[in-house]
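User: What would this chain look like folded?
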Amino acid sequence: MSDPVIVGVDGSTSSLAAVDVAAREALLRGAPLRIVHAFGHPSAHPPSGAAPWSPGDFGLEPMVRGEVARAEERAHETAPGVEVTRSVVSGDTVEVLEIESRSAALTVLGSRGLTGFSGLLLGSTAVHLAAHGHCPLMVVRGRPDPAGPVLLAVDGSPAGEAAVEFAFAEAALRKAPLVALHVWNTWSERAYEGPGDPLTAVVADADRLREAEQHLLEEAVARCRTAYPRVAVELRLVRSRVRNALIDASRDAQLIVAGARGRDGFTGLLLGSVSQALLHHAHCPVAVVRGKE
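Assistant: Here's the prediction, encoded as C-alpha cells.
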C-alpha cells in the first residue's frame, strides 16, 4: 500500500479546494487519501492519561456527518476510485498534522481556514509544517484551476535536491512541462532583498558570475533530466530579486516547487524567507520540500 496523501479540512471553502487538489494528487500517485480534521480539547483539562489527541469521544458525530463527510463526498466526486479514509481527532492542529505526515507521501492544506486552521498562512500551521513536517507540503492558493508548467525554484544547494526530484516527479505525473528557474544578481547574497539595488551592485566580473550561475542551474537538474527523459524542461536564468522573480513567474505556472531552505540568503532558518514569501504571495499552489538533514 502506498503512503497516503493527507489533507487537513475544517469545512471552509479553502479546505474543500484543498480536498480537490489532494484527491487528484492521490489519483495521480495511485495512493489513498486521508482526510484529517483536528481541533483542540473542548476542556483545558483533558482526561487524565489522554494522548495528545484522541478519537472523537466528545460529541463529534455531528461533525463527522458534516464537514468531514462533505469533504469525503467531494473527494469521491473529484477522483472516483480513490480510496478515502477520514480521521477526526482532538488535539493541537499542528501536532496532529505533523505526526500524520510521518506516514504520508504529501500533506495538502488550503491557504485560509476556520477553527483550528484560522489565519493559516498568517499563523504558524503552514510555516511549521513546511519546516518540520516529514513529507512535502502543498498549500493550495492563487488562481482557481491553474494551468501551465510546473515551476521549480532552483537554488543549487544540497538541501534543494529533494525539491528538484519532487518537481520532476510532479511534472511527470501531471504530463506537464517543467520550468527550472534560477534567479541571480550581482550582490554577494543571492537572496538579497534589502535597501539598494543588487542588480547594479559592483562586482569584479558580472559575465563570469552569470556563467557560473548558468552552470549551477544546469548541474542542479542534470540527474533528474536523465531520470525523467519525457519531461520537457526549460532552463531559465533570470537576473532579479529572488522573491519578486519567483512570485511573478508563478502567474503562469500550475504549481511552484521550492526547497524549505537553501544556500546563502536561503539559509539560517528551518524555513527560508523565500519559501515563506511564496506561501503568502504565489499566484498558484506552492509545494515546499524539505531536504535531507
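The longest strand covers residues 33-39. If you want, I can go into more detail on any region.
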